[in-house]
Design goal:
By secondary structure, the protein is mainly alpha-helical. The protein has eleven helices and no strands.
């Protein structure tokens, strides 16, 4: 390691957090960088993003990002893994929450589907998560990222089929609606809500009970990340 990189590492590891005044552990720093990477990759894509942008978004030095992840490719792979892990953890928690109240006449299966759909919508608060996965799914020809994206996509399909117990048509419909929501997020189409009747109708159809919250947390066209 060069002396400049060692100095950068020392500076970052000495830096206290603004909230607690204590130094972050290396695991906490790694989590902070991945969180920033989701936002940057989600907004700019794999090709457009740089490790320097991720470092600035995370509040650390670029050499420190390289020290932890090595390459932009490795950082993107870590972001994909984190996004999929968060999503599946949210789905599994929702599926297991059988004590959640439900309307009379709603079957247990329908209630579980509603909770899982809600978990997917709740993940909008993790800036860039849906868009990072969408970018990954467009990189099928990449020899490393493509394989990771395909594996992740298949894992989500198996969750719907094996863990949730949906048949193939139901699983397809669930994933299709999720991809629609991801596309809406990536387009920053929320900017047209209220001014375009068709887009307004689309939002009201996709988010019948969550609309005010969704409108508040969705990224706007003017947002950098």
């Amino acid at each position: 390691m060069s002396s400049a990189a060692m100095d950068a590492r020392a500076t970052v590891e000495r830096e206290p957090t603004a909230e607690t005044g204590r130094r972050l552990s290396s695991d906490e720093r790694r989590r902070q960088i991945i969180q920033a990477a989701l936002a940057v990759f989600g907004a700019r894509g794999y090709e457009g993003a740089t490790t320097d942008e991720v470092a600035r978004a995370a509040g650390v030095s670029q050499p420190y990002v390289v020290r932890l992840f090595g390459t932009k490719e490795n950082l993107f792979l870590a972001a994909i893994e984190d996004a999929l892990a968060r999503m599946l953890a949210g789905f599994r928690a929702a599926l297991a929450d059988t004590d959640a109240p439900r309307d009379p006449g709603i079957t247990a299966e329908k209630a579980a589907a509603t909770r899982i759909g809600q978990a997917y919508v709740d993940l909008i608060e993790v800036r860039g998560l849906h868009q990072t996965l969408a970018h990954a799914y467009l990189l099928g020809s990449h020899p490393v990222i493509g394989a990771a994206a395909r594996k992740g996509f298949a894992t989500v399909w198996r969750f719907f089929r094996d863990e949730m117990g949906l048949d193939a048509d139901e699983a397809r419909a669930f994933m299709a609606e999720g991809m629609l929501i991801s596309t809406m997020i990536g387009l920053r189409i929320v900017d047209d809500y209220g001014s375009d009747p068709q887009i307004t109708e689309l939002f009201r159809s996709c988010f019948p009970t969550e609309l005010p919250h969704v409108l508040d947390v969705l990224p706007r066209g003017t947002d950098r990340f």
